[in-house]
Amino acid sequence: MSKSKISEEVYDRYLDATVALFMEHYAAALTDSIDAEISDTQNLAFPEELDHRCKRLIRKEAAKQTGKAIMKATKRLLQSVAIFCISVLAVSSLLFLTVKAFRNEVVEFYISHGDGFWFISSNQQYKESTDLHAITFNRDDPLQGLIPTDFHLTAISNTNGRRITAIYENAAGESIRFLAFPSTTTLRIDSEDADYSKETTIMGYNGVITAKGSTTMMAWYDTEANMTYTIWASHMAENKVLAIAEQLIQNMSK
Question: pTM higher than 0.90 for the full model?
Answer without folding.
Answer: no
